[in-house]
Design a protein that fits this description.
The structure is a single chain. The longest helix has 20 residues. The protein is α/β, with parallel strands linked by helices and 418 residues long. Helix content is 35%, strand content 16%. The strands form three sheets. An eight-stranded mixed sheet has the order 5-4-13-11-12-10-8-9, with helices on both faces. The chain has a three-stranded antiparallel sheet with strand order 1-2-3. α1 runs antiparallel to α5 and α9 packs across α13.
Length: 418
C-alpha cells in the first residue's frame, strides 16, 4: 500500500536533514564555545544617589528552605536547561527556521503566546490583569502624583497604544488579547484617583492614522516614523493643557531625513518565530534637516555625547550592525533601556521635563526634546532600566516644570515608594 507523508512526517525529514548537515555538533552542541556576556547592571548606585525618605536600612533576607520539586517541575527544569543550551548549538537558527517554515506552511497562527494577526503582523497575547494587581499599580502612580503636585509640579499620565488596535484587533479566530481591556481599567483607576491622563490611543484614532502602519510587523514597538507622529499629537496636547506654544510645524515630515535600511530588523516577536515564519522589517532612521545641538548623558555608562541630533541620539555601532537574532536595532535609539538619560537642548529655552518611560517613549523623547531645554528620562522597570532610587528625591533635585509618565503597559510602574 502506498504511504503518504503526513505534515509531522515532513517535519521529521526536515529535522533529520538539518541534523545530518550539522553533523554531531548539532546534537551535542559546542558547549565550550566562548560567548561575550554583556552586563546591563548600572555602575551608578541610584538608590544611594537618590535615597528614599526615612528609608529603613536594608536587612538581608533569610532564605526560605528550598521546596521539594514535584516530578513535573523537575521535568520542566530539565526542559528549560535544554532550551537555554540552544544558544550553544551549531545550526540552531537553521533548525528553528525550518520549524518556523513548517508552522507557516501548515497555517499555524500561534507560537507560544505570539500570534499572527489577520493582517500578517505578529503580536503577543496578554492575559487579563488581576484586579488587586491593577489597584496596586494604580495606587503607586496616584501616590507619586500626589507628592508631585504637593511639590508644585504638574503631572500627566500618557497612555501609549499597544500593537493591538482598540477599534480593530485583527485577531485570528479563537484568539483574544486583554491588553486594551487592561488599559481601559487602568485609566479608570487613575482618573478615580485624581490623575490627569491622556489616552494616546484615542489621539491616534482621532487623527485618522492607520494604527497598524505605526508598528513593525515583527516587533511590539512602533517605528521612528510613528514616534514622530505620536510626538506631534503629544506636543499639541501639552500646548492645550499647559500653554507651551510649541511650534508643531517643527515636526512636519518635510523637515526630516528618512534613511531606510531595507530588511534590516527582526523584532522580538520575529526572533521567537524566526525568519522561517516571517520576513524582516525595514528600519528607518529619522533625523532633522535643521540645525540642532545637544548634550546627552547616560550616567550608568559614564557616557556623554555632544553634537547634533544624529550624533547624540543613537548608538551608532548598534545602528550600523545587522544581526537578526543577536541585535535589536530599536535599542540603538538612546542606547536602549537606560536607568537615567539626560538630554540637554542648547537651542531651546522651553520647559524642563521629567519623563518616566518605557521603550516606546524612548523613541519619542528625542523628538520631544526639540521643544525642551532639558528632558530627564527615568526607566524604573526592574528588568530593563532599573532606576531603583527615589523618584521623589530625583524630582526634587532636578526641579522639572512637568512630570510625564508614558507607558504602553503599566504593570511595572509600582516603585514610586521604597
Amino acid at each position: 500500500m502506498k504511504k503518504i507523508f503526513s505534515p509531522s512526517g515532513i517535519l521529521c525529514v526536515l529535522v533529520l536533514a538539518v541534523m545530518f548537515a550539522g553533523g554531531a555538533s548539532m546534537v551535542y552542541g559546542t558547549f565550550f564555545k566562548t560567548q561575550t556576556a554583556v552586563s546591563s547592571s548600572s555602575a551608578v548606585n541610584f538608590r544611594e544617589e537618590y535615597p528614599f525618605e526615612n528609608a529603613a536600612p536594608a536587612v538581608p533576607a533569610t532564605p526560605a528552605p528550598a521546596a521539594e520539586l514535584s516530578f513535573t517541575e523537575k521535568i520542566k527544569k530539565i526542559e528549560n536547561k535544554i532550551d537555554n543550551s540552544k544558544n550553544n548549538i551549531i545550526g540552531k537558527e537553521r533548525f528553528l527556521e525550518l520549524c518556523g517554515a513548517y508552522r507557516r506552511l501548515t497555517m499555524q497562527t500561534e507560537t507560544k503566546n505570539i500570534v499572527l494577526l489577520n493582517n500578517g503582523m505578529l503580536t503577543t497575547i496578554v492575559d487579563k490583569t488581576a484586579p488587586e494587581k491593577a489597584e496596586r499599580i494604580a495606587g503607586s502612580i496616584i501616590a507619586f502624583k500626589d507628592s508631585t503636585e504637593e511639590a508644585g509640579v504638574p503631572f500627566l499620565f500618557i497612555q501609549e497604544p499597544q500593537k493591538v488596535c482598540k477599534y480593530d484587533d485583527e485577531m485570528p479566530a479563537g484568539k483574544y488579547s486583554y491588553i486594551n481591556d487592561n488599559l481601559d481599567e487602568h485609566l479608570k483607576l487613575l482618573e478615580a484617583g485624581g490623575v490627569e491622563t491622556f489616552d494616546l490611543r484615542e489621539g491616534i484614532h482621532e487623527a485618522g492614522l492607520d494604527h497598524y502602519s505605526l508598528y513593525f510587523r515583527t516587533d511590539h514597538h512602533w517605528t521612528m516614523e510613528a514616534a514622530l507622529k505620536a510626538t506631534r499629537i503629544i506636543a499639541a496636547e501639552l500646548n492645550d493643557r499647559y500653554g507651551y506654544g510649541f511650534d508643531l510645524s517643527l515636526l512636519d515630515d518635510e523637515n526630516y531625513n528618512f534613511d531606510t535600511k531595507s530588511r534590516w530588523y527582526l523584532g522580538a516577536q520575529g526572533r521567537n518565530v524566526t525568519l522561517g515564519y516571517i520576513s524582516p522589517d525595514d528600519f528607518t532612521v529619522v533625523t532633522p534637516k535643521f540645525e540642532t545641538s545637544f548634550t546627552v548623558e547616560h550616567p550608568d555608562k559614564a557616557l556623554t555625547l555632544e553634537g547634533d541630533f544624529y550624533e547624540t541620539m543613537f548608538d551608532h555601532e548598534m545602528l550600523s550592525t545587522k544581526g537578526y537574532y543577536d541585535k535589536s536595532t530599536y535599542e540603538a535609539i538612546l542606547f536602549g533601556n537606560r536607568p537615567l538619560t539626560r538630554i540637554v537642548n542648547h537651542n531651546s529655552d522651553g520647559p524642563k521635563i521629567m519623563l518616566l518611560h518605557d521603550s516606546y517613549a524612548a523613541s519619542v523623547a528625542p523628538f520631544l526634546s526639540l521643544f525642551c531645554s532639558e528632558v530627564d528620562l527615568v526607566d524604573v522597570r526592574p528588568a530593563n532600566g532599573n532606576f531603583n532610587g527615589s523618584l521623589d528625591a530625583f524630582r526634587d533635585e532636578t526641579e522639572p516644570d512637568l512630570v510625564l509618565l508614558m507607558f504602553c503597559s503599566p504593570e511595572n510602574i509600582n516603585r514610586s515608594k521604597g
